[in-house]
């Protein structure tokens, strides 16, 4: 059981900044995220795109913002449960919560802050009628353990970075890699596109374009995919052990929608007059995942909401304990790792 | 005149004729959101970067729309329910030339 003060669901910019604000109040944080890395949309969807409305940054790349937020909160030693989706929440008799992920990891905290953005990212599944029957029987929507594909025949579908990168990686692992895409053009980093071209020329990647996987077959497990070339009327079968469609991820509110929270417009209603608490006392929602009159889904609004939420969390965790807002410039920052940052002292010295 | 009339058929098949401003640098996806013609979180997920196809629509009128850029072309090649007349709403700017445009939102995927 992982124990912490504030359990944050979602490791996007709002969740990461919460670590810092909580740390100033000597509260520890642990973050859960369905993605394998922190940063949320900023690292998953647009790490190389600039953001222009972060105060004091005329321009910052989304990936760099993530890096800086991690750096800013580092001394408060946040814990992470990555690649797992928060599945259930159970309120305990003492008012604390146990949140369990889809992999069974349990987290115990007196305060839960949902900073889930648009929800957890779920793979977009191609519309092949019998695809569900082959899920985990040869069809995977995400590559978690490349070893699964060692000496196997693998068909990858998609035209973006992940399709390119995994084709390159698996070319050395799998027995056979076939990349199927609806067009001849791929969208990805230039060196990935060039690398796939090289591997194709060397015969290490079998490229089938413009084409689409239209059917799956096999007894009890996947044995072949049916591929239709745009130029041909009839599809043909290609024997394979694995089919990995990589058509991107789309965010879904997911299991949180069943936690008894008040939901409006695919977002969680909160009290914005006070502390961004939801209808469940002790559970807060901050950042893009919440809604209230006048809500704006902006990173900078998430930062503000996180800051106010931490004050309320402090009161829950330390009932009646006095505290007054301090400025970091005045008080410095004492990390949980023993580090201290502070403003340099002015020199008091006579000038003769 | 700074508004144009646009007809948007929502995912339930209901047609809405709406006024869209031409002077606010808005795109079609944003017009749909401003009138809440699709639930929040089901359209414009990536914010308008041609990276999610949640604003895919079918263009029903014969307006002369700006050519697709590479990223729109690439996204549509990976999206579902794509037809000949598919476009990404986020890539269609509202200009006076869009007056009378008629589109239908593609299913949520």
TrEMBL record, chain A:
Cofactor(s) recorded for this entry are: FAD
Q: What class of enzyme is it?
A: oxidoreductase
Secreted found in the keyword field: no
Q: How is the cofactor bound?
A: Binds 1 FAD per subunit.
Q: What is its EC number?
A: 1.18.1.2
Domain FAD/NAD(P)-binding: start-end pairs? 5-293
Going by the UniProt record, its keywords in alphabetical order are: FAD, Flavoprotein, NADP, Oxidoreductase
Binding-site positions, FAD: 14, 33, 41, 46, 86, 121, 288, 329
InterPro entries, per database record: FAD/NAD-bd_sf, FAD/NAD-binding_dom, Fd--NADP_Rdtase_type_2, Ferredoxin-NADP_redctase_2
Example GO molecular function term?
ferredoxin-NADP+ reductase activity
Q: Which reaction does it catalyse?
A: 2 reduced [2Fe-2S]-[ferredoxin] + NADP(+) + H(+) = 2 oxidized [2Fe-2S]-[ferredoxin] + NADPH
- Specify the superkingdom: Bacteria
In terms of PANTHER family, this protein maps to:
THIOREDOXIN REDUCTASE 1-RELATED-RELATED (PTHR48105)
Q: Which family does the UniProt entry place this protein in? A: Belongs to the ferredoxin--NADP reductase type 2 family.
Record's subunit section: Homodimer.
Would you tell me the protein name for this molecule? Ferredoxin--NADP reductase
What species is given as this protein's source?
Mangrovimonas yunxiaonensis
Automatic annotation (TrEMBL), chain B:
Keyword set for this entry? Answer: 2Fe-2S, Iron, Iron-sulfur, Metal-binding
What is any one GO biological process for this UniProt entry? P450-containing electron transport chain
Cofactor section: [2Fe-2S] cluster
**Highest taxon listed in the record's lineage:** Bacteria
Offer an example of a GO molecular function term for this protein: metal ion binding
PROSITE patterns the record matches: 2FE2S_FER_2
What Gene3D superfamilies does the record tag this protein with? Answer: 3.10.20.30
Describe the location of the 2Fe-2S ferredoxin-type domain by residue ranges: 4-109
Listed InterPro entries: 2Fe-2S_ferredoxin-like_sf, 2Fe-2S_ferredoxin-type, Adrenodoxin-like, Beta-grasp_dom_sf
Q: Which family does it belong to?
A: Belongs to the adrenodoxin/putidaredoxin family.
Q: Supply the name of the protein.
A: Ferredoxin
Origin organism of this chain? Mangrovimonas yunxiaonensis
């Amino acid at each position: 059981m992982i124990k912490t003060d504030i359990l944050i669901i979602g490791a996007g910019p709002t969740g990461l900044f919460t670590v810092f604000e909580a740390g100033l109040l000597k509260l520890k944080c642990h973050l859960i995220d369905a993605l394998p890395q922190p940063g949320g949309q900023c690292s998953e969807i647009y790490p190389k795109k600039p953001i222009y409305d972060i105060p004091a940054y005329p321009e910052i790349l989304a990936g760099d913002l993530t890096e800086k937020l991690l750096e800013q909160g580092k001394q408060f030693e946040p814990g992470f449960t990555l690649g797992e989706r928060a599945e259930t929440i159970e309120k305990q008799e003492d008012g604390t919560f146990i949140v369990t992920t889809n992999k069974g990891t349990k987290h115990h905290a007196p305060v839960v802050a949902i900073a889930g953005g648009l929800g957890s990212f779920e793979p977009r599944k191609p519309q092949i009628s019998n695809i569900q029957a082959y899920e985990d029987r040869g069809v995977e929507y995400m590559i978690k353990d490349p070893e699964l594909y060692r000496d196997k025949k693998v068909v990858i579908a998609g035209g973006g970075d992940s399709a390119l990168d995994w084709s390159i990686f698996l070319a050395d692992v799998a027995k056979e890699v076939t990349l199927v895409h609806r067009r001849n053009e791929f969208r990805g980093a230039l060196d990935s596109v060039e690398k796939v071209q090289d591997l194709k020329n060397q015969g290490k990647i079998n490229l089938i374009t413009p084409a689409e996987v239209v059917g799956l077959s096999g007894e009890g497990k996947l044995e072949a995919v049916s591929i239709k070339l745009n130029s041909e009327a009839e599809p043909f079968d290609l024997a394979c052990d694995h089919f990995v469609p990589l058509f991107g991820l789309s965010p879904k509110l997911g299991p949180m929608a069943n936690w008894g929270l008040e939901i409006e417009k695919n977002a969680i209603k909160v009290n914005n007059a006070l502390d961004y608490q939801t209808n469940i006392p002790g559970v807060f929602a901050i950042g893009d995942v919440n809604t209230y009159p006048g809500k704006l889904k902006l990173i900078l609004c998430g930062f503000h909401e996180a800051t106010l939420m931490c004050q309320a969390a402090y009161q829950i965790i330390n009932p009646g304990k006095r505290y007054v807002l301090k400025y970091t410039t005045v008080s410095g920052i004492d990390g949980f790792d023993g580090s201290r940052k502070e403003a340099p002292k002015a020199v008091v010295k006579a000038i003769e | 005149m700074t508004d144009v009339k646009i007809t948007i058929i929502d995912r339930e098949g209901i047609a809405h004729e709406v006024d869209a401003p031409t002077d606010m640098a808005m795109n079609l996806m944003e017009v749909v959101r401003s009138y809440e013609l699709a639930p929040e979180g089901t359209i414009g997920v990536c914010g308008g970067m041609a990276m999610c196809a949640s604003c895919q629509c079918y263009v029903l009128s014969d307006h002369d729309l700006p050519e697709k850029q590479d990223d729109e072309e690439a996204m549509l090649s990976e999206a579902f329910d794509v037809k000949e007349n598919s476009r990404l709403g986020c890539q269609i700017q509202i200009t006076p030339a869009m007056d009378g445009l008629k589109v239908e939102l593609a299913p949520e995927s």
